[in-house]
Amino acid sequence: TTSRPRSEALYKEALEHIVGGVNSPSRSFKAVGGGAPVFMKRGQGAYFWDEDGNRYIDYLAAYGPIILGHAHPHVTAAICRAAENGTLYGTPTELEIEFARMLKASTPSLDKVRFVNSGTEAVMTTIRVARAYTGRNKIVKFAGCYHGHSDLVLVAAGSGPSTLGIPDSAGIPTSIAHEVITVPYNDLAALDEALARWGNDVAAVMVEPIVGNFGMVMPKPGFLEGLCAAARRNGSLVIYDEVITAFRFHYGTTQTFDGLPSGTDFAAIEPDLTALGKIIGGGLPIGAYGGRKDIMAQVAPLGPAYQAGTMAGNPASISAGIACLQALQEPGTYARLDQLGAALEAGMSEAARKHGIALTINRIRGALSTHFCDHPVTNYDEAQDTDGEQFAQFFRLMLEQGINLAPSKYEAWFMTTAHTDDDIAFTLQAAERAFSQMAR
Ligand code: PMP
């Protein structure tokens, strides 16, 4: 059992100066019963050490980017080299070309790309570009998919399948929420209904092709194919938000993923625009968007859609991204992540069964999500309809045993190339003890 007096003290102090004590609300422990989050001091490989000297096996992976583990030597060296040559130029560099080539080689739909600083910016801009290109204003998104914190995508479903959105945050005008239509993921009939009603106004359908934001959820066979076909028929663009999925399951995006054994033919469908982030920055801030040449020609300085950034394409982020992608090209990387994920899934399922805990695990290679429920999770309603208190208890019991998870029942566990078989075995022992306690 860990004791964390320094985290407690630092949290008190942080609350005095930083709103809520955290620089992103997902880091607070609000969703798991409150209290001080753990203040980490150092990360190395699969491990974190907190301010009190406790060690944790980390499956948060910073919400996804840290797929190589913390402080991977190849990435660290690239960052140091970049820093020695100046971190920010405000001019073009050759590095940006090299990185753009790497992204394009991984994903044929990316004729042209632009680098930005976060997933939020990437998504926000794809919407502007889609609106500029189509001359339409509305977008369709899917309930429970998170696309960053910009106005248009921070909108929840209205009260029925064919109603306009309602703001998910204070400070978003209803008029903006009314430009968004939210339909259930994996539900083509609802999408058809929305397009039948508002189709002429819909600039784009925005989707996480594989969901990472209410657990890991695969598209049902035919869903993405049907979505793309419906959007095309309607003259709307298709935007893939691949901020979580890019380079997660294989070297590339979902657009080049074999997807087995899901039944979706990912390679047969192509979005018009794609948003990227997380892994492609190797742990430094980054985002990118790209797509078809004629659509991307809308962007300034070529076209009328404005998007800019003082920090965009900075040599440090680009160097870290190149190094990360280089390391991911090592043969066997994704098979290894898959193997780690499979071992964790099998062991946890078995332990949950043994202790009579209802647990649905969704896993796609090295990413998995744990849902305390006895039904499948294929959309946001099903993900919400799980036992949050049980998750909170599990989260705390795991933390006490040195396992760091995201403090939310919706977030995934991410395997990294730094995790070892021993780490998995240790984690499974901890899970076994947690389930045993929860069963009491
Ligand atoms: N899109 C998706 C699918 C995401 O998961 C996230 C972040 N979790 C974002 C966009 C926003 O990215 P960022 O936090 O870098 O702004």
Automatic annotation (TrEMBL):
Alphabetical UniProt keywords: Cytoplasm, Isomerase, Porphyrin biosynthesis, Pyridoxal phosphate
GO biological process, one term: protoporphyrinogen IX biosynthetic process
PTM annotation (N6-(pyridoxal phosphate)lysine): residues: 278
Group of enzyme by EC: isomerase
EC number: 5.4.3.8
Any one cellular-component term (Gene Ontology): cytoplasm
Pfam families to which the protein is assigned, alphabetical: Aminotran_3
Molecular function per GO: glutamate-1-semialdehyde 2,1-aminomutase activity; pyridoxal phosphate binding; transaminase activity
UniProt KW Cell division keyword: no
Compartments, as annotated in UniProt: Cytoplasm
Source superkingdom: Bacteria
Gene3D superfamilies in the record: Aspartate Aminotransferase, domain 1 (3.90.1150.10), Type I PLP-dependent aspartate aminotransferase-like (Major domain) (3.40.640.10)
SUPFAM superfamilies xrefs: PLP-dependent transferases
Entry annotated with the keyword Cytoplasm: yes
Reactions mediated catalytically: (S)-4-amino-5-oxopentanoate = 5-aminolevulinate
Required cofactor names: pyridoxal 5'-phosphate
Record note on quaternary structure: Homodimer.
PANTHER family documented for this protein: GLUTAMATE-1-SEMIALDEHYDE 2,1-AMINOMUTASE, GLUTAMATE-1-SEMIALDEHYDE 2,1-AMINOMUTASE 2
Protein name from the UniProt record: Glutamate-1-semialdehyde 2,1-aminomutase
Taxonomy of the source species: Bacteria, Bacillati, Bacillota, Bacilli, Bacillales
Underlying gene: hemL
